[in-house]
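Q: What structure does this chain adopt?
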Amino acid sequence: NFRKMVRDVAASDGKQVEVLIDGIDCEADRLVLQRIKDPVMHMLRNAVSHGIERPAERRAAGKPPEGRVFLKVSTERDRLLIVVEDDGHGLDFARIADKAVGLGLMSRADADAASDEVLSQLLFEPGFSTADTVTTISGRGVGLSVARDAVTGLQGNLAVQARPGQGMRIEMSLPVSVLSRRLLLVSFRNQTYALPADAVVKVLRVKVAGVVTVEGRPAIDR
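A:
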């Protein structure tokens, strides 16, 4: 369905797009695949609607008139890796910063000082969109926030890479199966807690005296 969907979105926007798909035969838990299908479709739609330029714009930028959207699926040990990438105009970080200020998400000073990584994550906030108009497929600021919720709900993570004028790349890492996972067991006061091992960056042994309070919450100085 992905190729046809992308072509239909491109046609409605007056754009020319080639869809390249690799690794679609990778195997994973059916539940994971079912729950990640719609998020991937949202990201592909956004790649066409927000990323790929119209033929005249691409020619003016020295690009071929036909844009490219890539979908790559692979597995690495017990992780399912999904990449959605396009060769469009990338992200307009100044526009994102202005929109964040307008929505009250950041102060002007914080927006001006924010890194590209911080600004790109705003795209996944509910209701956040840089589109000037609302269409049947974009502009509501819903698709990417739903996609992020689905990924995190599967104990996955999501990363964004973008270069102005060069395109955008979204990488998702998910467990191949939600039925079998590695866990870190932690016991505290006769209770045992199970933490997803892929969510643990480091394990430290800290003395009680090393725990301080910052803004009313316990913290340690690493």
